[in-house]
TrEMBL record:
Protein origin, superkingdom: Bacteria
Protein name from the UniProt record: RNA polymerase sigma factor
Short name of one Pfam family: DUF6596
Keyword RNA-binding attributed: no
Region feature Disordered, mapped onto this chain: 105-128
Family per record: Belongs to the sigma-70 factor family. ECF subfamily.
Domain RNA polymerase sigma-70 region span(s) in chain numbering: 20-85
Domain DUF6596: 206-306
Entry keyword annotation includes Transcription: yes
Organism of provenance: Streptacidiphilus alkalitolerans
Entry keywords, A to Z: Sigma factor, Transcription, Transcription regulation
Domain named RNA polymerase sigma factor 70 region 4 type: residues: 139-187
Length: 433
């Protein structure tokens, strides 16, 4: 039987996991740009991390862990292409040969060099996107793919999310999401969708999907859908970074600004969302002195800028809702009527069961729990843990404790995150369940 790893080895395994969380998306993006093959890039990067798990715990991490991963993945990809002797794709052959001569193409997120072409040296890359990971987002948001496939594929490639995590984000079974990912990759391969930087004219048509991708990456970072860690700071930070790049790329797009403001205002509460022991703290119970004031100031300034533009969209409205919350010095000072009006506007612009659920929370604060419960009971969100948690809280406020216990148990059953499950369990046990 193998010996249990010591503290030093355990720390090095944790270092591999940290590098995976922080660098997976960059490594895949760099290899996709170099080889033009999603499966090849993803498998090579996964192989590199497997190799890191074998070598780093005993030998220690290299001086540049991210560079080691990218170089190892590049070598694995080249080895695989060499083994595929029957491969006739001239582009792949040219890429392979060029990379053997020009490994510098893979060292950094370089903006100026594109994949080599069969005619000779590397071509000058055209287009406005200057970041490999943002470029990957736009590539996956090609109009030949459905919106759901675009978002799911980018979450997989950019964030390294598992199929189960993406399925939870979409509120669909894991098997359904697995099929969706396979079909998306197959369509890219069979339709020969190019891995090129989108031209200026392509950007507006892809913006909606790109914003959805960045928002879901942020959500997964802000409140992880599964696992022992309540947040994935690396994903939240990456989403904000991409949001800033988007407003630089498209400064006249109000929804890009709205998304950035929404992420900044939500992230401003991060330090207050958990107690020192890791316990989840609801918005009403948070210590508002721990909120990040510079982020609030920046987010509110963007919201005011959007209001002056007077071109409302879903992200701008959600940012405005968060701005109202951030205006209140304490929970009692929250302007719930304004929040209710903003949710009315959001539901009209972007109707969805999740928006209706959030609106019901505002109704509970302005009209009471009974009319809010009637709205919640009309929704079809059985696989969404927040639906059951909101319903349980409304039942508790109405004194219907036995029903509230059952609702909490339903929420616990579909919650993948350990911290949220612990919070819901405490709430249930507080009712004698």
């Amino acid at each position: 039987m193998a010996a249990e790893p010591g503290p030093a080895e355990a720390a090095r395994v944790a270092e591999v996991e940290r590098v995976f969380r922080e660098e997976y998306g960059r490594a895949v993006a760099v290899l996709v740009r170099a080889f033009g093959d999603i499966d090849l890039a993803e498998e090579a990067v996964q192989d590199a991390f497997t190799a890191a798990l074998r070598h780093w715990p005993s030998a220690g991490p290299p001086p540049s862990p991210a560079g080691w991963i990218i170089t190892t993945a590049r070598n694995r990809a080249i080895d695989r292409l060499r083994r595929e002797a029957s491969r006739t794709d001239r582009q792949a052959t040219a890429v392979r040969e060029a990379l053997l001569l020009r490994p510098d193409l893979l060292h950094q997120d370089q903006p100026h060099q594109g994949p080599p072409h069969p005619g000779g040296g590397p071509t000058e890359e055209e287009g406005p996107v200057r970041d490999d990971r943002l470029r990957l987002v736009f590539t996956c948001c090609h109009p030949a793919l459905g919106t759901g496939a675009q978002v799911a594929l980018t979450l997989r490639l950019l964030g390294g999310l598992s199929t189960a995590e993406i399925a939870r984000a979409f509120l669909v079974p894991e098997a359904t999401m697995a099929q969706r990912l396979v079909r998306a990759k197959g369509k890219i391969r069979d339709a020969r969708i190019p891995y090129r930087i989108p031209y200026e004219a392509d950007l507006p048509d892809r913006l909606r999907s790109v914003l959805a991708v960045v928002y879901l990456v942020f959500n997964e970072g802000y409140a992880a859908s599964s696992g022992d860690r309540p947040v994935r700071e690396d994903l939240a930070a990456e989403a904000v970074r991409l949001g800033r790049l988007l407003v630089e790329l498209m400064p006249d797009e109000p929804e890009a600004w709205g998304l950035l403001a929404l992420m900044l205002l939500a992230r401003s509460r991060q330090a207050a969302r958990f107690a020192p022991d890791g316990t989840l703290v609801l918005l009403a119970d948070q210590d508002r002195n721990r909120w990040d004031r510079p982020l609030i100031t920046e987010g509110q300034a963007i919201v005011r800028r959007c209001l002056r533009r007077n071109q409302p969209g879903p992200y701008q409205i959600q940012a405005a809702i968060n701005a109202v919350h951030s205006d209140a010095a304490d929970p009692a000072g929250t302007d719930w009527r304004q929040i209710r009006q903003l949710y009315d506007q959001l539901l009209a612009l972007a109707p969805s069961p999740v928006v209706a659920l959030n609106r019901a929370v505002a109704v509970a604060e302005t009209e009471g729990p009974e009319p809010a419960l009637a709205l919640v009971d009309a929704l079809d969100l059985d696989g969404y843990h927040v639906f059951h948690a909101v319903r349980a809280d409304l039942l508790r406020r109405l004194g219907r404790d036995a029903e509230a216990v059952l609702a909490y148990e339903a929420a616990i059953a579909v919650t993948g995150n350990t911290a949220e499950r612990a919070f819901l369990t405490r709430r249930r046990d507080g009712l004698g369940g």
